[in-house]
């Protein structure tokens, strides 16, 4: 299927990075790559230490609908490679991780609803409340959604997926060899988490990605109605890091799932 054309290594640095910041990224990339040759491609890692990570440099090309559809199918294969539990960290890593520069708990949990409520929604909702970027009404709505999640109302019986975890369009690079993924927050989760993130911030030929993924993954009819539920986490994360507009959007989104 070809290889991405490289122009030399790219070194990513983060002065003052917390312990494990680059190591968990490298572990996540290796875990995603281990999903198999037909799964989504990920950027190669050349070196990693406490101060930086050295990656293959990717050459971006114009996105095409065909490449987007191929990516949707490949992403479904990555998810199907699975994980031992929801919240499971990538192989070779113990402890928590990061989403962007914010902490991300990675604590294996048997059911998705409990995991999503307790590790992906409530911590960021409460932090946003403390920062003033999520109002009392918004927090109350998120808490009501979490009550339904803990009760299993949204559990669908699907096994934990091997997800990228931070799949916005900036981490989806169209190359001559096809889409290559970068900057994961990889863990065991629900596959719609990746689609929700991608849909929230937009992506080239998004509809082609979603349609190809849905067919390849054998999703039940009506799955798109749940995309907003899976967008609550990135909205709350952004409410913490980028301000109250995201808090208001999270409040509006939560209202649809109480």
Outline:
This protein has 258 residues and is of the alpha+beta class. It has 8 helices and 10 strands.
Question: What is the topological layout?
Answer:
Layout: E1 6-13, H1 21-33, E2 41-42, E3 45-48, E4 52-58, H2 65-80, E5 97-99, E6 102-104, H3 112-131, H4 136-150, E7 161-163, E8 172-175, E9 178-181, E10 187-189, H5 191-201, H6 206-217, H7 227-242, H8 244-255
Task: Describe what you observe in this structure.
- Pfam families: Fructosamin_kin.
- GO terms for molecular function: kinase activity.
- This is Fructosamine kinase family protein.
- Belongs to the fructosamine kinase family.
- Residues 1-6 have low confidence and may be disordered.
- The N and C termini lie far apart (45 Å).
- The protein is built from eight helices and ten strands.
- By secondary structure, the protein is an alpha+beta fold.
- The strands form four sheets. Strands 1-4-3 form a three-stranded antiparallel β-sheet, with helices on one face.
- It has one domain (60-255): Alpha-Beta Complex (Aminoglycoside 3'-phosphotransferase, Chain: A, domain 2).
Number of domains: 1
Q: What is the overall silhouette?
A: globular
Relative helix content: 40-55%
Cα end-to-end separation: 45 Å
Judging by the overall fold, what is the CATH architecture? Alpha-Beta Complex
Order of helices and strands: EHEEEHEEHHEEEEHHHH
The amount of beta strand, in percent, is 15-25%
CATH superfamily: Aminoglycoside phosphotransferase (APH), C-terminal lobe
What is the helix tally?
A: 8
Under CATH at level 1, the class stands as Alpha Beta
* Unreliable sequence segments: 1-6
In CATH, the topology is named Aminoglycoside 3'-phosphotransferase, Chain: A, domain 2
